[in-house]
Amino acid sequence: MDLALAAAERDLGVGRAMAAPGWVRDRVLTILEAQAARLGITAMRAAERLQRDRSAVEEIVAALRVGETRFYRDPVMWEAIASAVIPTLPQRPVAGLSAGCSTGEEAYTLAMMLAIAGKRFSVLGVDRSSEAVQAAREATYSAEAARHLPPAYVRRFCEVDGSVMRVRKELRSLVSFEVCDLVSAVPRGGFQIILFKNVLLYLATPAGEAVARRLLGELDARGVLITAASEVPRLCSVGIATARISSGVTAFRLGPRTGSEPPPPPPAAPAASGSGFPGGMEGGR
């Protein structure tokens, strides 16, 4: 197990080795056992082969990077974006980035929110998995995926047919997706909003912090980078400047940390969401 995690961290900056949580270790063991069964060897031998078999390491990394994703995940964060971030955005076209977009739900949720606010915008989603990116481009999900979205979002942005839901073409035209390994490179900015949520969990130190700093470098002067609440302390610990955007949400921004920011508070209770659908601007990244 430790051999496999060390190989993933050494070669691709993924895994967090000995600090990996239990679910990560369980998933790695499952992949190792499957590799061993295919080769007719023990799991220990399969782990030892990782030192010289990069494709086997890639298989483990791909399994680790398949995380949970859904529309409107973490309503507290989305409400903070709607009430405290979007109103401060410039009148010029807004560029948003979903870094580690998986199958696209987060990128489309951001696009829905920007459209409701009447902004001209483009949203780019990037992920290391070509299969996830293809699924995001198709924008077809189970109807159950809509259960977390506010009803007004579903009515205005989605087409539901029986058990299938698809994001409407008008919104899809404003969202693009690219295959990108964030450990190797990040998309060029400048972005006003970067969502970098539930990705640091999969990245070793210092690879994760380095990715966050490169993403911060692609923000415009007033842009914000938002992580999951559980990831805030990790970036605060290396001195990245914070920006409190609501009582329950702390983001990151360009510039030195002043040291005066209070520690992040516990998440607030979800608030009611808005509705409406002014149009956006086609184009962008």
UniProtKB/TrEMBL annotation:
Ranges for region Disordered: 252-285
Keyword Transferase applies: yes
InterPro entries for this protein: Bact_Chemotaxis_MeTrfase, CheR_C, CheR_MeTrfase, SAM-dependent_MTases_sf
Keyword Transferase: yes
CheR-type methyltransferase domain residues: 44-231
GO function terms (MF aspect): S-adenosylmethionine-dependent methyltransferase activity
Superkingdom in the source lineage: Bacteria
Pfam families assigned: CheR
Coiled coil start-end: none
Comp. bias intervals (Gly residues): 276-285
Keyword terms, alphabetized: Methyltransferase, Transferase
GO BP terms, alphabetized: methylation
PANTHER family, per database record: CHEMOTAXIS PROTEIN METHYLTRANSFERASE (PTHR24422), CHEMOTAXIS PROTEIN METHYLTRANSFERASE 2 (PTHR24422:SF10)
Name the UniProt record assigns to this protein: Chemotaxis protein methyltransferase CheR
